[in-house]
Each structure stands twice: as C-alpha cells, then as structure tokens.
Specification:
Elements: H1 3-6, H2 9-15, H3 25-39, E1 44-47, H4 55-60, E2 65-69, H5 72-78, E3 89-91, E4 103-108, H6 119-132, E5 133-144, E6 157-163, E7 166-173, E8 178-186, E9 192-200, H7 204-213, E10 217-222, E11 236-242
Parallel strand pairs: 1-2, 1-4, 2-3, 4-5
Antiparallel strand pairs: 5-11, 6-7, 7-8, 8-9, 10-11
Helix pairs in contact: 2-5
C-alpha cells in the first residue's frame, strides 16, 4: 500500500464530511483558533494539506496558507473549495518538497507524519519544516499516542473505535514500529467495506529527538487543540516546536 494508492479519487471524495467527524465544529474550531494564534500574523504552510479541511477555514481567518500535498485527487477536491490564488499547493512529498517563501508556522495535523514509514523520512520532515521557517518559527504536529499498553503478550491488534456502521482496529508490528489501521464500514447488507492505511508510530520522546536533530526545541505539548493537560492517559497530543529566535 503506497500513499498514492491509498489517497485516490474515492478516498478524496470520502474524506470530506462537512459538519461531522473531523469537520465537526467542536473539533475544527479549536484547531483553527490555535493555528491562527500560532501563526502570529505571518504565513502558514500545511504539510499534507489534503482537501483543505483546516487550510480553508484558516485562510478564511486571514492567515495566508500554502500547502504541500502528494495526492492529486486530494488537491482536485480542495480546488472545489479554494482556487490556486487563495491557497497555492505544491504537489509533492512533505519530507522533501519545497514551497516558495518564508513562514512563521508549518503544521501537520491528524497523525499525518506517521504516513512516512521510516524514521529517516520522519526526521527529514522535521528538517523540511525547519527549511521553511524563519527565526522563532513554529512547527506544530498533531499525533496519536501508540496504544501498546492495550496489547497483552501474543496479541497484535487493538480495536480503537466502534460505533453503528463502523469498526476501527489497528494491527501492530512492534519490531518495525509499524501499524496498519483497518476501517470497516457496513450497513444492513452482508458485506462490509474495508479501507486500510499503513503508519509508523512515534513516541512523544522520539518525536522530540527528531525535532532536536532539525534545530527545534519543544515549546509546548497538550492533549488537544484546546490546551488540555497532556498526561500518561492522553490518547493524542498537539506538540509545538520552535526554531530559536537567534538562529
């Protein structure tokens, strides 16, 4: 499963769920509020901009937003909501592609850094963020915490969500730090629809070391975009890294 195959036309169309799921106001609102604050009046660059879930409302707040995106179908879906003049997009890999200009904020939301399947690629993603930032610039990552405490010896999978018509489970390869997310969607028929995506999971401490290698320091870490305290029980985190002002 390579990323181009995963984020195809069908995935791009299914990704947008206005008003619900990731697009629910209680999820999207705090995300945009926090990113607008962190941009500090400057321009923002979104790695893996997708269909513009965050970029479109952030641009609507007056923050100039540029994106980098690997999937052409995702970019085409974004173009139904914002044109190239409003939100420019560079088609390419977020670990290596370069956008013109300098930014006060680079951000990477909803676990997307884990789509890079090697530690080396993830480190390069940090370095690419640093490449786009001026002194004092910030790199923000939203990422889930690996749920390995739920894995007793011999078990390789965890069910992380169940709701009517949907089951989400992850299968782990702890030797390689890989996980495959399986999404089962079903109705009253006898057949279910399965989609899958591979990831390389990252512990917060490993993420901090990647940041250090790229010249960042951890500025803050919270459990969500609203600023809840990050604890040992938190299922995800929003981590803000900053380039020194005297770089």
């Amino acid at each position: 499963m390579n990323q181009e195959e995963i984020w195809d036309v069908d995935a791009a169309q299914r990704y947008d769920t206005p008003g619900t799921g990731m697009f629910a106001p209680e999820i999207l609102g705090p995300t945009v509020d926090r990113l607008a604050e962190l941009a500090g009046g400057g321009a923002a660059l979104e790695f893996a901009i997708g269909t513009g879930r965050v970029a479109v409302p952030l641009a609507g707040r007056g923050v100039p937003v540029t994106g980098i995106e690997l999937s052409l179908p995702m970019v085409r879906q974004l173009r139904t909501r914002a044109d190239e003049a409003t939100i420019p997009v560079i088609v390419g890999d977020m670990a290596t592609s370069v956008a013109p200009g300098e930014y006060t904020l680079v951000y990477l939301v909803y676990n997307t850094i884990s789509n890079l399947l090697t530690q080396a690629e993830q480190v390069e993603c940090f370095r690419n963020a640093a490449r786009h930032l001026g002194p004092g610039g910030r790199f923000v990552i939203e990422l889930w915490v690996p749920e390995l405490r739920k894995l007793p010896p011999g078990q390789k999978a965890t069910v992380w969500e169940t709701e009517p018509g949907y089951i989400g489970l992850d299968t782990y390869d702890v030797l390689r730090q890989h996980v495959v997310s399986h999404h089962f969607r079903f109705d009253e028929s006898k057949q279910a629809r399965l989609t899958r995506s591979p990831h390389r999971y990252i512990w917060p401490a490993e993420l901090d070391l990647m940041a250090q290698l790229a010249g960042f320091a951890l500025e803050s870490r919270h459990a969500d975009w609203s600023g809840a305290e990050f604890t040992a029980e938190s299922r995800s985190h929003v981590s803000v890294y900053r380039i020194p002002s005297n770089r």
